[in-house]
Amino acid sequence: MTLELVSCTHGYGRRRPPVLKDFSYRLPDGLTVLLGPNGAGKSTLLKLAASVTRPRRGTVTFDGLDAGSTQYRQAVAWMPQNIIPMRSLTAREYVAYVGWLKGMNRRDAWEQAPQALARVELSSQADTKTNRLSGGQLRRVGVACALVHGARLLLLDEPTAGMDPRQRRVFRDILTELTPTVRVLMSTHDVADLAEEADQVTVLYDGRIVHTGETRAFLAHAPRDAAPGRAAEAAYTAILEGGLVPRLDG
Ligand SMILES: Nc1ncnc2c1ncn2[C@@H]1O[C@H](COP(=O)(O)OP(=O)(O)OP(=O)(O)O)[C@@H](O)[C@H]1O
């Protein structure tokens, strides 16, 4: 049992073609990286999976729970692309508040927030107001929010954007530590950096999956003469160039 989208159709505005049409996807174990050009539908897919928005048609379930149910929301954590700071809340208060929204009792949420912040190396900023944090620090607060309530599925929308190289390392270590027990679906534009660390790679193009499978299979798309260290980028380009079939159903 896992995250499963079955025949989902979703878009923005009835007059515009849907972003995802009759879209089905089953998330494998471990860490899956979601790649695709701007506008491909990555955030839309993550929002449906997070139950932030409901599909016009189709079903979304996780471990048999229906998206929209309280149990589903408690099992799933979503980190959006833009994390909005709250000037009245410190990092600890922010993380505890999200834990409470996810169904933790206030005391547990408050007591566990520092551990979640420690895991993203942000203990020193626990008492800093969130509007005073840098963009990268705020994203780490977002990751701490995802960790605090013990979610079984993490949906991360470009989590490493704005992080410095060391923080990316820390972040990847956290994911590696989590993935034996937690499934992760993470969008990124950072192909070279992350594809090699992922268990699986899914590539979206124009609302369609043009590749999904183990990272090794993804990297096998790179031409043999790809420069060392550029295999992921070359594989991604090769897949997209092979996937540029016009959409006939729009
Ligand atoms: N709130 C919205 N209202 C109208 N259109 C939207 C909205 N959100 C997304 N779209 C449109 O839906 C399509 C898919 O967007 P989405 O954000 O899912 O793509 P993405 O792959 O995450 O892109 P990016 O890499 O730029 O974040 C785009 O054409 C986008 O303009």
UniProtKB/TrEMBL annotation:
Keywords, in A-Z order: ATP-binding, Nucleotide-binding, Transport
Protein's name according to its UniProt entry: ATP-binding cassette domain-containing protein
Domain of life: Bacteria
ATP-binding among keywords: yes
PROSITE patterns in alphabetical order: ABC_TRANSPORTER_1, ABC_TRANSPORTER_2
Pfam family, one: ABC_tran
Keyword Nucleotide-binding: yes
Taxon lineage: Bacteria, Bacillati, Actinomycetota, Actinomycetes, Kitasatosporales
A GO MF label: ATP binding
PANTHER family: ABC TRANSPORTER ATP-BINDING PROTEIN ALBC-RELATED
